[in-house]
């Protein structure tokens, strides 16, 4: 679910390459395209035209298909292309090199697809600021009524820059993000209730360590922890004060700018020095060791992405195999003293991909019509879910994947989500309906746990503030400050208690000198200009 995290290497490339590549080439390719973008060949003279659409290539296409010649490409051509006199041509871009390849394509007015997309907001803002994107506001009003209704104004705002609609954001089906979990069997052996506050959680963790209910000895880990967002964000959010109502700054490297951040690090320091969390968490950025420890039954409490453990043969199933009496309870224990002791946690913004039409495109009308078609009737469901009776059955109006689906039927839709660019996840209604559909897509033995997990993930959430202009300091310092956040977390945790203040203050001073001061000033000014909203 956590699609918002960007690789540092991509941002470094953006910082080095976009100025050189886009500063000249994109602007040079923008010249006389305005009228072409607003008219479109097919709409104007009836001639058959070609619409080029970017498509992620993950290198996993099953035989007999190719990435550009598959069941879905043929379906889109038949249902959208042919009736509109358009040849839909998909342009593959390796998923692992999406920004690098897109930069090259955007620098060429002749090679760039008519529909491109990126997850990274900083890349979108740079393209828009350099004049490389079509303002699609009027086009959506004219040719995208179904698209506009599907996305809604809140999601569309993510694609706006200074009042102009330079991107069409995909809509996220589920905004709940994190939940926490505890070993119910450990509590039962100790005769303890499930903790409901941070203080009660600390008391429970101390009991797990001292009384070792599973008799694990040196393998006993009261609280599983990794240097990964699902673990440290849940802890940090339970201390920081949101900036404005139920919203706060959207980038995780901005967490140190919040009131309460120091207190969160002090609590982490306490847990580490008392031996209550994973000893080598700093070496576990991909959560490999944490997952092994959970699967082997060695962990009493942990936090995770709301759905991460519940797939077939995933962590929860493996833990049951390894620990016959192991029972897990989704738990909302962290309470925030800076927010009326609510169970504060982050939620995703309502946006997914940033879908863009390059300024050099002559097919802007057709591009918007294509996205509008996707948002119309059952077209999105046909792309994502497949064929009724072969790929899915309807359960209370919700498409549920068949457990015994034939391999050839499954292969038809192996990359369905990469075509459904207007939707991040299975959007079939409101969030409650989307969540029900999501739950029904998991093994039956895990559905109730996932339901409880989502309820926690949706409780007392704080979302990202949508600024009406890009934050320049984010683009300038983001990569450096993101790396620095890891350093602050590790050094704050591992400092001797008597040295904590000195260590934390030194690392924060370094953070501020590396761009934190400029970032803090710009964020506060941007918030003030919006009336503090």
Summarize the structure.
46% of the residues lie in helices and 14% in strands. With 533 residues, the chain is an alpha/beta fold. Residues 1-43 have low confidence and may be disordered.
Strands, helices and their partners?
Layout: H1 8-28, H2 34-39, H3 41-45, E1 49-57, H4 71-81, E2 86-94, H5 98-106, E3 116-118, H6 121-129, H7 137-143, H8 145-156, E4 160-161, E5 164-165, E6 168-172, E7 178-183, H9 184-190, H10 198-211, E8 221-223, H11 229-237, E9 247-248, H12 261-273, H13 288-295, E10 299-305, H14 315-322, E11 328-331, E12 345-346, E13 351-356, H15 364-374, H16 379-385, E14 392-395, E15 398-401, H17 407-412, H18 416-419, E16 423-424, H19 431-440, H20 444-457, E17 461-464, H21 472-494, H22 500-529
Parallel strand pairs: 1-2, 6-16, 8-10, 9-17, 12-17
Antiparallel strand pairs: 3-13, 4-5, 6-13, 7-10, 7-11, 14-15
Strand order of the largest sheet: 3-13-6-16
Please state the CA-atom Rg, rounded to the nearest Å: 25 Å
How many strands? 17
**Mean pLDDT rating:** 90
Estimated helix fraction: 40-55%
Summarize the biggest pleated sheet.
4 strands, mixed
Overall shape: globular
What's the N-to-C terminus distance? 27 Å
Q: Label the structural class.
A: alpha/beta
